[in-house]
Fold:
Amino acid sequence: MTTKLATMALGALMAAGPALADLVIPDLSYRTGPYAAGGIPFSDGYNDYFTLLNERDGGIGGVPVRMVECETGYNTEKGVECYESTKGEGALVYQPLSTGITYQLIPKVTADGIPLHTMGYGRTSAKNGDVFSHTFNYPANYWDGASGAINYLLEENGGDLSGKKIALVYHNSAYGKEPIRTLEELSKKHGFELAALPVDHPGQEQKSQWLQIRRDKPDYVLMWGWGVMNQVAVQEAANIRFPMENFIGIWWSGSENDVLPAGEAANGYKALTFHNVGTDFPVFDDIQKYVVDTGKAAGAGDQVGTVLYNRGLYAAMLASEAVKKAQEISGNADITPAEMRDGMEALEITEAKMVELGLPNFGPTFSVSCENHGGDALVGVTQWDAANKTWSLISEFKATDGDVIGALINEDSAAYAAENNIESRCN
Amino acid sequence: MFYREAGDFKTSYTDDSQTFPIKFDRYRYYVVLAVGFGIIPFIINDYWANALLLPFLIYAIAAIGLNILVGYCGQVSLGTGGFMAVGAYACYKLMTAFPDVSMFVHVFLAGGVTAIVGVLFGLPSLRIKGFYLAVATLAAQFFLVWLFNRVPWFYNYSASGQINAPERDVFGIIITGPNAPAWATYLFCLIFLAFCAIIARNLTRGTTGRSWMAIRDMDIAAEIIGVNPLKAKLTAFAVSSFFVGIAGALFFAVYLGAVEVGEVFGIQKSFLVLFMVIIGGLGSIFGSFAGAAFLVLLPVVLKVVGVDVLGWPTDIVAHLQLVIVGALIIMFLILEPHGLAQLWRVTKEKLRLWPFPH
Structure:
């Protein structure tokens, strides 16, 4: 009973917080648990970019950004708690970096009128903005990833994959199961054979899956992994001497954490991406000057320039551009979540804009519309160089198979719309 | 002074055998009910419902269920997560197959389905005991999670393998889905909790409960004096699974709204509910409440104190939380091995004499 009273008092204290003019951006991060290796750099990048805007420009459009960090541990129950505890503060956009939490939040944010940005994860059919009014997944989604990987392999094989065997090693969860449907369609279209091998959470035990790969000898292995599963898979692939250049991971399986443990053996491993890698961009000078050197970097400050740090930075950049767009449309500097949603829907990222932000050629150019919340679906490929310990972009951002994906998205979103009685709102 | 039987006269056997024979206890119980049903629904908001009260109510139901099996009947079970998953998936299939039927019916039926599954997995308990039974129920846990991941029929062939609760109502009031008002979801779970607690309390005071306890205390002796072990053990499994199934159905439909079986109903859930029962007190209904409250509310309180009041980094608070909760569990078990319920009993004994102990 006393604990109950204590929480009650604290809850009241929290609810009575001051209401200043600021842009509240919650950061549902995970710096603990089996997925922390991916959660920390992303969150650091996300925080650092907003810190940079506050320090260098005094916020966005003159209004400072207030980050509210909440630890989810990649756990859906804690994710719900974080969402409920932060939404009352005027949160503008949620980026939970977890497909499981995304599925929880899609109906909730729609009811509460707060936009949700799931960049390269979450529910793929949310690309159909006609049905998913408050969910955005630009610039690319899992099905684009699946198609991007197959397109890359097509290119390598002179446009013909018939008779080839492709294995998919996936995290046995909503996240890992996402690409299967697209890959099945593509296997029909291009005539390759697909074998799906699930790996259970958290993914430390993959002996049997790789034994099967050694026995079946697929030509290529694709991977949908996250957290500790990635490094184990790369190590296992090295153990069975699977040629690394034929092993392609999704963008969540392509960071330094995933390949460093395997050392030299990981050389040549490939991963998909929807943004550029490295620190060779003008914005990193500003981050060094305004954020790192002043001691304001998030976390330990040692993640600057890693793949996932760049992804967090890119997510923050897209969010801040949407805030600018929203300020421009509404005319208010201190925008509401509803205005933020309109800003995201009108977002357009051009090369000129990225140059202006100090991020030339950092990501694909795309635009968002009412019907299309997923951008233009351009996917690139990176490769790991174990000797220099660097990732490099080996294939530019290229278009994916819109016919196959578009049909699947329409099918899945129509089912969701029918289940939840959602009416068409664009036109 | 506060707590005494003196002057509390009973004039009939019914009075004498009521649930709370001491007047103070009875009034406290009425006050709790009045606050729970009459005051909280009017002041509740989304944060309180979704972050604290719903998980507390639902875990309390699960803990009561497991307490019947472990605390009253002495059958160790590590399959709670799997049985909760049965409740959740049964509820999902019913909700999507019969959209017009009231949620009350769905949740009860989900409990019923889980009871049948529980009896099936309880059959080995007739031959094996103790740790061996724990291993058999552990197998149930893994098998059930695997089944729900493996067979697409259970999740209606959705692409991601997730189940999502569609919007359903009770007498026109929305209970599931994002538009459900906080007070409605809270009351819905509270009604189930009150129902389960009253049933459990009365079952454990009657013949059924006594036969469970006889089996728990010494099964051979119980058999000799005429307790049928088959009936006692299987009824314990059935009743326990019924409650756990209700908890699973509410957990999915009302609290989370979307569930991925491996993550939500994994082995950690089984351990969490077992810890609630052990910390709260084996063989005590109050203990189930106390254990659920302890393990649901304490992490949130620590988070609020650490992050919002003291302003510490979130990862440090998350790690400290593990340390503090772990240390408190060890401390409680050393100081009071019989759980929070025993602590409460001792307090009551003390209050009887206070302020004039001998």
Summary: The two ends of chain A are 54 Å apart (CA to CA). Chain A has two domains: 21-140+279-376, 142-273+380-402. The first helix of chain A runs from residue 2 to 15.
